[in-house]
Amino acid sequence: MSLLREAERCIANQGTHATLNAFITTRQHSGPWLQRVRDAETRRTQGTSKSAVDGRLIAIKDNICTRDLPTTCASNALDEFASPFNATVVEQLENAGAVVTGKTNLDEFGMGSHSVHSRFGPVKSLRRDRNEESLSAGGSSGGSAVAVATTQCHAALGTDTGGSVRLPAAYTGTVGFKPSYGLISRWGVVAYANSLDTVGIMGRDVSSVNDIFGVLNRPDLRDPTSLSSFTRSRIDANLRTPALASRATSPLKIGVPIEYNISELSPSVLCAWSRSLAYMRRQGHSIHPVSLPTTKLALSAYYVLAPAEASSNLARYDGVRYGNSISDASPGDYIYASTRGVGFGSEVKRRILLGAFSLSADAMENYFIQAQRIRRLVQHDFDTVFRACQPLAFGSAVKNMDSEKNGIDVLICPTAPSPPPRISSFMGNETVTSHPHAYMNDVFTVPASLAGLPAISIPVTVDSFVDSGDVALAGIQIIGQYGDDRLVLKVAEQLDGKRL
Ligand code: GLN
C-alpha cells in the first residue's frame, strides 16, 4: 500500500473510531503534514527513504513531550501544558521521516491497568475477535494500543513502568515491546518511577515494532540513564561468546517459569500458553521448566517501589514551579495545598499517599528497604536461569562458564492472567479499578520490569478453544536476559500472529 493511502486510511479511522477515545489530541493533517508523507512517498520510489518509518503516521502516548501538540498526562494537574521541546524519541522519529499523528489517552501519569483513570474518560477497546466496544483496553498505554489495533496510526509509542505496553497489547491483540532499561532515551518523557520507566513500542506486527526500535535504540547524552556507546559495545561483546553466537542458527532453549502457572489463570490463556510452547517445540526448540521463586513477591515489591518514586516525582506539580496553579485560593490558603488537592485524580492521590508512607521514617525499613531487597532477588532469579550472563553485573563472567551450558535463552509465559474485562464491570467501582484486584493484572509483567529486562507481548489466537469451536485471543510474553533484545524480537517474530 502506498504511504499516502495508508496515511489517509489512518486519518479516516481516527474519525470513524473517535468514540473509542484512543486519542486526546489528533493532528490536523492538512497542508504541510500530508506533504511530509508525499515527500516520503517520492523518496521511497527513488529508493532514498530516510528509514523504515519514513512517511509513517506514529501516535505518541500523552506523557511524552511534543513541542507542537499539548502534553497532558491525562491529568488536570497539567491542563494545557505546552512543552517547549520534543522528547528525544519524538525527535528521532521525526528525523527518520515519521509523522506524529496525535497524542494518545492513558491512565493519569501512567498509573493504572485499564486506561480508565483519565481526565478525558476511559479508552474503549474494539476487539477484532468479538467485535465488542466495551472492553478494557488495558493500561496505561491503552490509547496507543487501541489506535494501533484499529489502524488509526501505523504504530505507536507507549511507556512501560510495570507492564503498560504489554498489558494493553495483550488486551487489544497487538504487539507491545518493552526494551531493556536504558536502551531508549527518556529525555522528555514525564517520569512516573525513574528506576523502572521505559519507552515501549506498539505495532500490529513484530516487524513494524522492530523498525521503530532500530530508530530509537541509540545513546542520548541528555538522558543520564541512557546507555553509552561503550556500554552498548560491552553488552554486544557479551552476547558474542561462541555458545551465545551459535543461537543465531541453532535451536533455542525455552524456559517455562513454573510459578507463572497460577490458579487465577483463565483457561483460554492457559491454552494459548501451552499451544505456543507446543508450536515452538515443533519448530525444533526445546522446552525447560524453570523456577523463579521470588515471582510471588514481585507484585507487592513493585507496588511499594513505584508509588514511592511517584510520590517524589509528582511533588513538582505544586502550582509554583510546575502544574496549574489555583491562584484564587482564599486568603490564608496555601497555593500549594489547594493546587495539589484539585489537580490529581483519585488513583494518583492514592499512589502519592502510599509512596509517602513507605518512605516515611517509621515505615522505611519495613516497606521500601524490604521491597528493594525483593527486587534484587527477582533479578537474581532471572540471572540464575538465563544462559547469557547479566552484562552489567559485577563478576558475571565467572558465572557465565556454567550457565552457558545449562541456562535457557528466553522465557515464554502469559502477559496477563485473563482476557480483558468489560469496562462496565468496574467503571465507577473504586474497589475494582484500584486496590489489589486491579493490581493483579500486572502479576506477569512486573518481574521483568523490576529486573530491567526486555519483554514483548504478542497476540496468539487459539482455535477450537477447549473443544468448543470458540476462538480466543491471548497475549503471550517473551522475556530475555538484559541486553538480549534482538533475540526476544526474533523469537517473537516466530510466534507473531499465529493461529494455534
Ligand atoms: N499498572 C501498573 C501501575 O499502575 C503499570 C503502569 C505502567 O507500566 N505505567 O503502576
From TrEMBL:
InterPro entries for this protein: Amidase, Amidase_CS, Amidase_dom, AS_sf, GatA
Biological processes annotated in GO: glutaminyl-tRNAGln biosynthesis via transamidation; mitochondrial translation
Catalytic site: K61 (charge relay system), S140 (charge relay system), S164 (acyl-ester intermediate)
Enzyme class at the top of the EC tree: ligase
Catalytic activity: L-glutamyl-tRNA(Gln) + L-glutamine + ATP + H2O = L-glutaminyl-tRNA(Gln) + L-glutamate + ADP + phosphate + H(+)
Keywords: ATP-binding, Ligase, Mitochondrion, Nucleotide-binding, Protein biosynthesis
One Gene Ontology molecular-function label: glutaminyl-tRNA synthase (glutamine-hydrolyzing) activity
Transmembrane segments: none
Location relative to the cell: Mitochondrion
Domain Amidase span(s) in chain numbering: 16-489
Cellular compartments per GO CC: glutamyl-tRNA(Gln) amidotransferase complex; mitochondrion
Source organism superkingdom: Eukaryota
Presence of keyword Mitochondrion: yes
Known EC number: 6.3.5.7
Cell membrane in keyword set: no
HAMAP family, per the entry: GatA
Quaternary structure note: Subunit of the heterotrimeric GatCAB amidotransferase (AdT) complex, composed of A, B and C subunits.
Sequence similarity: Belongs to the amidase family. GatA subfamily.
UniProt function note: Allows the formation of correctly charged Gln-tRNA(Gln) through the transamidation of misacylated Glu-tRNA(Gln) in the mitochondria. The reaction takes place in the presence of glutamine and ATP through an activated gamma-phospho-Glu-tRNA(Gln).
Name of the protein this chain belongs to: Glutamyl-tRNA(Gln) amidotransferase subunit A, mitochondrial
Species this protein is from: Aspergillus ellipticus CBS 707.79
